[in-house]
Write a structure and sequence with these properties.
The complex is a heterodimer of chains A (484) and B (100). Chain A is of the alpha/beta class. Chain A contains 15 helices and eleven strands. An eleven-stranded mixed beta sheet of chain A has the order 1-3-2-4-6-5-10-11-9-7-8, sandwiched between helices. A two-stranded antiparallel sheet of chain B has the order 1-2. Classes of the chains: A alpha/beta (484), B mainly alpha (100).
Chain lengths: 484, 100
Amino acid sequence: MHTLSAIEIRDRFLRGEVSAVAIVRHFLDRIEKYDEEVGAFLSVYADSSLQHAAQLDAKRKAGMPLGKLAGIPIALKDNIHLKGQISTCGSKFLTNYVAPFNSTVTDLILKEDGIIIGKTNMDEFAMGSSTENSALKKTCNPWNLKCSPGGSSGGSASAVAARMVPLALGSDTGGSIRQPASFCGITGFKPTYGRVSRYGLVAFGSSLDQIGPFAANVSDAALLMEVIGNHCDKDSTSLNMPAEDYLKGFDGSIKGMKIGVPWQFLEELEAEQRTLFETALGHFKELGAEIVSVDLSILKSSIAVYYILATAEASTNLARFDGVRYGVRSAKAQTLNEVYDMSREDGFGKEVKRRILLGTFVLSSGYQDAYYRKAQKVRSLIIQRYKEVFSQCDLIVMPVTPTAAFERGAIKDPVQMYFADIYTIGVNLAGLPAVSIPSGLTGDGKPFGLQIIGGQKSDVAVLHAANAFEKITQYHLAMPDLIQ
Amino acid sequence: MARIDRDVVKKLTQLSRIECNEKERDELQVDLKNILVLFEELQQVDTEGVAPCNTVLEEISNVMREDAVGETLTREEFLVNCPSIGGMVRVPTILPSGSV
């Protein structure tokens, strides 16, 4: 069953060929079988997901209408709230935090009869590119257990890659959906900023964060987008436009479409990765698209802009974790100030502390103009450049990352780790939609992803192009040896 | 370029309300210095006359809602996540006894 798409699983359930209970049992068994090695899940809701499945079976038998996600098990990254369950965000600080409400995306999934089967590991507060910053668990890449699954949504990506769940949600602040999708050989989509509600997503960089789907193919990711991509009045940055029909016209042609490649920005791409990328471009030509060269060399500044703005926003967002109203309060604290200082000392990991301090620094008096304000101005230039580029082409394609998955523990220098996001960050700075899809394997058998980027609100066009590419390449059908 | 010395790091840990021992502060000092070198590259970008970006969504500003009471957490739901006493959040004594 796990080799079927989420859409096929749902359709079989709707036709009465398989019960929702059997579907959930199947995936719970797979979690049982593979997750000890992979380490994708922080919690698995065996009882509640089976109960939910039984309710759906009863609903189907009674002939009641069922939703778009009927019977499909779905995992949530552990920074997305499910009422009554713990949301740890991969942090020691929140190991006891019970979400008092559902996130909007959770409500939307449940409304469409999706089954929440568990919550997945992540870099602490989504800060990282390898999931190694999780304070709670080690997550491995199903393609090579020595390797990182990428991050920060490494748990969701590896869960889908090992087919322990057909669909999962992640969040993407600087590449945290697309990079792990690339490392794990699956589809990961970061929607236009504002397309998916952030209500109930624990905030990291509020002007950059966006929730999006992971799936084993583009159609399944599109299906989940149809459910979660809607206006929400609890998020003041939610786009005021109705949900879109991504799957309609999915088999349309991309003939004549202009695809931009920012060659100057890709100068440092190594030979093997360059060859994989050029092969991918060849497939777009086969599909009748025209490849044009575009200039995005300004993105060389994007790492600096991002780490100034994201840390500034994080330093304010994470001020709420003071140990008073929620989170683990330090047992040593005797005074109120000690509650703050010691709870934060005990609860936060090194990367989180580093980023809070950096953010505090770039916002502090005397430095705000030189760093924060300067970065906001360069962000304006980056947005402007993308607009100019999208007047010359319909979509941009480039690799998701400079390399395939690296080994866990291989990157110790934080600055070097920040460069893992060099190709993904620009998209967040400009609020664009972008998808990561498999584009073949490297010589040592690791997946390498292709990124397709569109202008704001062109989510449909991005997914259509990804689907056209997937249809003729079939790279998405490759599965890790672990689960063969 | 800004100097990241021990005093700056100490000040930052105080502003961020994160207690740190000296060893941690020394490590953070090295990391912050290295990261600032990266940030410094931005000074070469010409931003003369460029407005700072505050949002990527140009069409959305000042979203208002009706001033009506909506759904909210009950006291019991709220207190699930913190130490409480008599239906209130419990915190250590703020004022020494006899000071009021």
